[in-house]
Specification:
With about 70 residues, the chain is mainly alpha-helical. The chain has one domain. Helices cover about 40% and strands about 10% of the residues. It has a two-stranded antiparallel ribbon. A hairpin with an 8-residue loop joins strand 1 and strand 2. Helix 1 packs parallel to helix 2. It is globular and about 30 Å long.
Length: about 70
């Protein structure tokens, strides 16, 4: 059985995917609400499940997504 992640904008999965897309390193984080419009939660404040979701989003984009062309 595979894990189903909440892919809401600003959430851990979304932020991991975005970091990969923009060529940034892995720095687990997420926003409580909308990206850059709500409180930022860094890795020290994240649960294991939230950290796993961040890495899953990053890995998903590395495998199946594209990269921003500058």
């Amino acid at each position: 059985m595979s894990t189903v992640y909440d892919k809401r904008h600003g959430g851990p999965w979304d932020r991991g995917s975005a970091d990969s897309y923009y060529g940034r390193g892995r720095v687990p984080h997420y926003f409580v609400g909308d990206t850059h419009q709500s409180d930022l939660v860094m890795m020290a404040g994240m649960t294991d499940a939230e950290i796993d979701a961040y890495h899953a989003g990053y890995d998903d984009n590395e495998q199946f997504g594209g990269k921003k062309e500058w």
